[in-house]
Every structure is written in C-alpha cells, then in structure tokens.
Amino acid sequence: MALLQISEPGMSTAPHQHRLAVGIDLGTTNSLIATVRNSIPEVLNDEEGRPLLPSVVRYLANGHAHIGYKAQAEQSNDPKNTIISVKRFMGRGLKDIAYAEHLPYDFHDEPGMVQLKTIAGIKSPVEISAQILATLRQQAEDSLGDDLVGAVITVPAYFDDAQRQATKDAAKLAGLNVLRLLNEPTAAAIAYGLDNASEGTYAVFDLGGGTFDISILKMSKGVFEVLSTGGDSALGGDDFDHRLFCWILQEAKLAPLSDEDTRLLMTKAREAKEILSSKTSTHIDAKLLSGESVHLQIQASTFVEMTQNLVLKTITPCRKALRDAGLSIEDIDGVVLVGGATRMPQVRKAVSELFQTTPLANIDPDKVVALGAAIQANLLAGNRAAGEDWLLLDVIPLSLGIETMGGLAEKVIPRNSTIPCARAQEFTTFKDGQTALAIHVVQGERELVSDCRSLARFELRGIPPMAAGAARIRITYQVDADGLLSVSARELRSGVETSITVKPSYGLADGEVARMLQDSFTSAEGDMKMRALKEEQVEAERILLATQSALSSDAGLLSEAEQSTIAGLMNQVSELTNQNDLDALHAAIKALADGTEEFAARRMDQSVRSALAGKKLDDIS
Ligand code: ADP
Ligand code: MG
User: Fold this and answer.
1) Disulfide engineering: 433 pairs with which of 148, 274, 465, 563, CB 3.0-4.6 Å?
2) What HEC string does 454-474 produce?
3) 25, 46, 195, 403: which one is catalytic?
4) Is 184 one of the catalytic residues?
5) Top-level class of domain 525-612
6) Which residues pair with 475 in a beta bridge?
7) Has 25 been annotated as catalytic?
8) Nearest CA to ligand 1 atom 25
C-alpha cells in the first residue's frame, strides 16, 4: 500500500486543544507505545522507566494474567499458559501456523482463527493481544494522565485483511479507538521524515526477535508506495541467542540441561549478545540448578564468526525484494534500520555492503516504528503545527471492479486511488422482465474476470419487471480508511437495495499484487482484443433478444418474405456469436441492425398511433 499527503481543510486545532493520540508498535517480541509531546515524538516508558513491553502474556488459575517482563520471567516454569509471539497467530487458522506441533500450547482449532486452551480458559489471539494493548494503554494513561482520543497501530506490510482485522479487533477490545492501521516500514520511514522531505526509493530492513522483514518503499510526489516485501518469518535475534547458547554448552562441556537451566542460559546468551553489540568482549557467568556453574569469556569477533551465516541469510530476501520491485542496488537511495537485532555491528556492516550506503540508524531501531506511528496518530487526531496541514492516506493497491456481461471486468475504483473513497456507477438490466441482478466484485487490472481475483458475489433481487435497459441500478463501491470495501446496489426507480462488505486485500501478499500488476502490463494488448470480442458478443446477444422480443409482439407488421430475411440475418449473428471472428460478427450485427430498421420504424408508428388513438390534436401539442 502507499501513502499520499493531502490537505484537509479546517482540521487544524488551536494549541491548547491538544488531543492525546498514541502510536503503538505491537511487535512479535516487544511492544511499545509512543506519543507526540511539544512536537517531539517520544516513547512512553513503564513505571520502572522501561520503554519495551515484552509481548508475553501468562494466564493464571484465578483468571488473571501477568503481562510483559513478569510473564517473560515465568515463561520457563509455565510454558503452556505463557503465550509468546502471539502475533504469529493473529488471523490465522491452525493449518497456517508453522511448527504448531513444536509449540508448547494446547491449540483449539476453530474455524477462522486458532484458539489456545489455557488454565484461565480458551483464549483467542485477539484477546491475548488485547491484554498487551490494554497494558500499553494503561502505561500511556498513567504518564499522560488523560483519556486517549485514539491510536495508530502498526502491522507488517504483508499482513492480509484477516490479520489486520484481528489487530483492529484486539485494539477495540483493549478500549482503544483505532485511528488507522499503518504498515511498519511506512511508520519507520515517517519517523525519519522521509514522508515530507524526500523523493526516492528506500529499503526498510527490519530484524526483530523472531522475524526478518525487508520492504522496498517508493516515495514520489507525496505518495509512499510499498513496491515489494520479503523476508524470513523464522529468522531473528532469537537465532543469534541460540548460536551463543550452543557455544556455551560446548565450551562449558555441559550435560543435557533441564528446561529451567536451558531458559536461564538462553537469557544469559541474549544478555551477552546485546552487550557484544557495543563491547569487544564480555563474561558469561551462571549458576545452574543442576549444580554446575558456567564462567566464560567471549570475544565479539568469536560471536561474529559463529553467527556469520545467520547474517548472510538476510541477504537473499533483500535481493529477491529488489528483483520483485524491478530494481537494482543502485536504485536504492537509502536504507532504514528497524528492529533491536539491527544493533549488531555485523548486521549493519552486511547491510552497508549490500546496499553500498550507510544505513539510517540514528533513531533507536526498536523505537522507530512506534515513533512513526505516534507522528501519524498525532496528525490524525488533528494536532498539527502551521505548515503541517496534511494527512497521510493509504491508496488501494489493485483496482476494484465489477463483472459485466461477457465475463468482462469493469473497473469501478482504479488502483492507487486514495482511501477512504467511494465511487458509483450505473448499470441496467439485460433482459426484458429481469428481476434480479448478480453482482460479482473483483480485484485486479486485467480485462477478463477470469484473470482477476474474485472478492464477493451477491444479488440484487426484487427489481420490478421492466423492459431490458429500463432499470437504473446504481452500484456504489466504498473503501474505508483501513482498506475495507463495502458494495451496495440500488435500483433507482423502485428503491430496492442490497449491500455487502468485502475484504479487498484478503490473503493477497504484496508479491501477488506485484505479479497481478505485471500480468496486466504484459497482457494488455491481448486483453484489449479479447475485450472487444467479448463486448461484440454481448451486443450480439442483446440485439438477438431485442429482435426476438419485437417479433413475438409485432410480427404482424412484416410480410412473410421480410420475416424470413430477418430470420436469416438473426441466424448469421447467432452462428458467429461463438466464434472468435470479431470483424465477421461486427458485420453480421450491422446487417441485422440495418435489416430491421424498417421494422423498427413501423413499430414506432404503430405505438405512436395507438398512444394517440382517440385524442384530439390539441391534447397532444
Ligand atoms: P520484534 O519486532 O520482533 O518485536 P524487536 O525489534 O523488539 O522485535 O527486537 C528484539 C530483538 O532485538 C531481540 O532478539 C533482542 O535480543 C534484540 N536486541 C535488542 N537490543 C539488542 C542489542 N543491543 N544488540 C543485539 N540485539 C539486540
Ligand atoms: Mg518490530
């Protein structure tokens, strides 16, 4: 998705009316909440001064929960009831979760989203995330002492509609008013001021606790567009901890460990890893429950060596994301570092070498997403300084259209339209006496419905019977600020109406969006020909139906010879309808239209005569 700046008149507020809004980075490993105070974005710390909240929730037998550091510390004692990385389960069914069988949880496979059986009952990922969000909200209200007007919550750029919807639901459950969901790489770019300062193409390199995401963003004429995304959902800081943990086992010659000792040493490994980002060596000291103890010293160079291939694993997805965007290294104007694990110097070095530029890293990489979200939230809440009278808006990545006769896709909202937006188009009935209309909502750039993605089908029923073409059906497409589409159809003469809400980007990864666009460019010419043929076939069917209907009521106006001439012309059209000869079909349709001109004139005379029957000239002039 992309972002556009537009000015919204009358949204500026006086300084004393500052409205409190927050940005939330709901992370897999850690979550943060930030706000803008006196024009400066800042992360709101907890009461002990800690900016991060580990995204961990432990459920207790009494129905309560421990959240954050406390839950993280208890994780090894109670793995079944201590949920980590719940973000991986958001909007996902059991079959979508990799390694589900290796996780300590008691999954409960529900249609839709997976649920977890805990000592405090069955919990959905939405509820668990809501616990984290509610904790952050409390943290913000404690330090700001006011009620929040709303929050911007970040999600990975590749999150599909189900995952986005689940995130929104969690926020609502936590009592937050969601101003907008924002893509994480876009939030990071906003924090660096790339939204209003620079034109160019940026790579956002995000190495978190358990996931690696690379996004290529393009900024031009005020529009932010995610050109491609990629990454590795099973690569992050945790893997570096694990390497160091294995090294400790080896160096200290330890026997197989209990779960508690494993957890303890993993924590020690993480601490050492984080220290080695800024020191050339450190000590690892631990007293295990088994009675053994560990006293080791490790050099940063040793750690770099043992994690070299993990660093290398980030490079391939970067190259692939560039390729998907149709770009090469030289096209990248800058790189933004996101995620705590990008603090490691060896990661920074690899990124610099690959992109041949020093990455932007002066904003804390684990705060940058929350800070960008706070800036966006502040604007959406209506707090803006003079000269800042603009809003960031998303655009839809693929056109939204409707199926028309002949299997053609008619675009109702073209791609890259800024959202929220609404467009209406009028359609009519095809057959005499048609009382229902099937509406098929599609997404994509191609001309044929079969090449687009089907989003929803519904029917408008109860149209009063009328002649073909007499009904006026207005179909309205409306996309809200979060990209959710609703479609309504209304027959204007009778007022019959129906509507449906669909999810336009459901399950579409950005790679797929790119592929669908690519397909539409490469097949544009073939599509145009196919479209012309389909349109002619629809026209053929229409003229046959109309002629048939005229004959059945007014055949008496024609001589037998005339009737058989028309029948011959109809046959010709009907035979050519299913062949792929556009020119021949076009000629046959024209012949039929010409051949029935006289018939149409006689019918017209007759209807005028019957309408005027019994009326004096004065009445009608
Ligand atoms: P997520 O986006 O998955 O919630 P974060 O961006 O908070 O994750 O990153 C968490 C990871 O960053 C953890 O693996 C943590 O150990 C690592 N990390 C944090 N600080 C440092 C540091 N100074 N050096 C190396 N790794 C760090
Ligand atoms: Mg993150």
Assistant:
1) 465
2) EEEEEEECCCCCCCCCCCCEE
3) 25
4) yes
5) mainly alpha
6) 425, 489
7) yes
8) 274
Strands 56-59 and 65-67: antiparallel
**pLDDT tens digits, residue range 26-82?**
999 999 999 999 889 999 999 999 999 999 999 999 999 999 999 999 888 898 999
Question: Hey, what CATH topology would domain 400-521 get?
Answer: Substrate Binding Domain Of DNAk; Chain A, domain 1 (2.60.34)
Q: Do residues 129 and 86 make contact, with C-beta atoms less than 8 angstroms apart?
A: yes
pLDDT at 220: 65
Q: Find out whether the beta carbon of 339 lies less than 6 Å from any atom of ligand 1.
A: yes
Quick check: 180 and 380 in contact, CB under 8 A?
yes
Centre of ligand 1 to C-alpha 360, Å, is 17
Sorting pLDDT into bands at 50, 70 and 90, what band is 316?
very high
For every residue of 496-554, DSSP letters joined together read: -EEEEEE-TTTT--HHHHHHHHHHHHHTHHHHHHHHHHHHHHHHHHHHHHHHHHHHHHH
Q: Which residue has the least CA distance to atom 5 on ligand 1?
A: 208
* CATH code that applies to domain 21-235+313-395: 3.30.420.40
- Identify the residue whose C-alpha is closest to ligand 1 atom 19: 340
Q: Is the CB of 30 under 6 A from ligand 1?
A: yes
Q: What's the sign of the alpha-carbon dihedral 320, 326, 329, 334?
A: negative
Q: Decide: 87 in ligand 1 pocket, CB within 6 A.
A: no
Question: Cα(366) to centroid of ligand 1, in Å?
Answer: 7
Angle among Cα 509, 510, 514 to the nearest 5 degrees reads 120
Of the candidate CATH numbers 3.30.240.20, 3.30.390.10, 3.90.640.10, 3.30.420.40, the domain formed by 237-309 belongs to: 3.90.640.10
206 is catalytic: yes
Q: Which of 184, 213, 261, 510 is catalytic?
A: 184
Residue nearest to atom 26 of ligand 1 (CA): 341
Domain residue limits, the chain: 21-235+313-395, 237-309, 400-521, 525-612
352's tokens: 């610099």
Ligand 1 pocket mutation pick from 129, 214, 274 by most atoms within 8 angstroms of CB:
274
Query: How large is the average pLDDT for residues 321-334?
Result: 92
The residue to which tokens 């997403």 are assigned: 369
In this structure, the chain runs to a length of: 621
Give yes or no for a contact between 127 and 172, defined as CB atoms under 8 angstroms apart.
Answer: no
C-beta 344 within 6 A of ligand 1: yes
Which ligand gives the minimal distance to the CA of 269?
1
Tokens of 314: 């980030």
Is 343 near ligand 1, meaning CB less than 6 Å away?
yes
